[in-house]
Amino acid sequence: MVTLGRDWWTDPDAGHGLLLAPLAVLLAWRKGLVYPSITPREPRTAGQAWVGVAILIGAVLLRYLSGLAAELFTMRLSMLGAAAGLIVFYAGLRQLRHWWLPSILLLLSIPIPDVLLNSLALPLQLQASRIGAWLLESRHVPVSLAGNILQIPGQTFFVTEACSGLRSLTALIALGVLIGGLWLRTPWARIAIVAAAIPFAIAINGVRVFLTGFLAYFVSPSLAEGMMHYTEGWVLFVIAFAALGALGLSLRFLERPTRHVAEKET
Q1: pLDDT-based confidence at 262, cuts 50/70/90?
Q2: C-alpha pair distances (Å), 144 with each of 113, 124, 158, 163
Q3: Can you give the residue ranges of every domain in the chain?
Q4: What are the tens digits of pLDDT across the range 223-253?
Q5: Which has the closest alpha carbon to 87: 55, 47, 61, 58?
Q6: 3-state SS of 177-223?
Q7: What is the rounded CA–CA span in Å between residue 266 and residue 132?
Q8: What's the pLDDT score for residue 91?
């Protein structure tokens, strides 16, 4: 837990955990317990206890094996697994299902392992470079693309790992999960809002590359770096958040006929 908190505070790729983890705890507290107390009417069953113990033992074994491999991601997964085992032991599987949204948010707050991070970053860099180059060409800017390197007259841009859009993708997926859990009720709508986060993240990063090249070519090369470059990223990120929220409201509206039919059948 200490190293996880340190990574949230110091690693830019893990900073979203500072928001997701407290939010998950708040949502779990607001949802409350399925059964506020163990009563004679709803006693804890032996089967429930054994399932909880089995999950807890599995989490301990995972912690032991990940310790041998010195792999932080699975160590942190074992911590969540142990918490899930204790919840099942004391309150049952129904309580764990009741807390499905906080559980997913806690899972998303764990930083992605470096091996997976590196394998995802390069394809996203290349895709952002292609989109940026295509948009620049559409605005009659002479551009040459070689992998993740863009060249315009007098300027060369390297789409770095930090500009791959991986941070935006992680944040938008978390937002999609949150919107799906709070606003939407049908599985298809929840899957759609999470899936939409992927093209949204790729698109905004491609637009960011385009704006960087466009402003450097037509206005000033100094606008392609420093505070202006970071400001572009934040503005586009806020726009993507708003667009995903608008999509969530649209899906909620489309859900109404399905919800009414289900209510009538019930």
Answers
A1: very low
A2: 33, 19, 12, 19
A3: 2-108, 114-265
A4: 777 666 677 778 888 898 999 999 999 999 9
A5: 55
A6: HHHHHHCCCCHHHHHHHHHHHHHHHHHHHHHHHHHHHHHHHHCCHHH
A7: 51
A8: 87
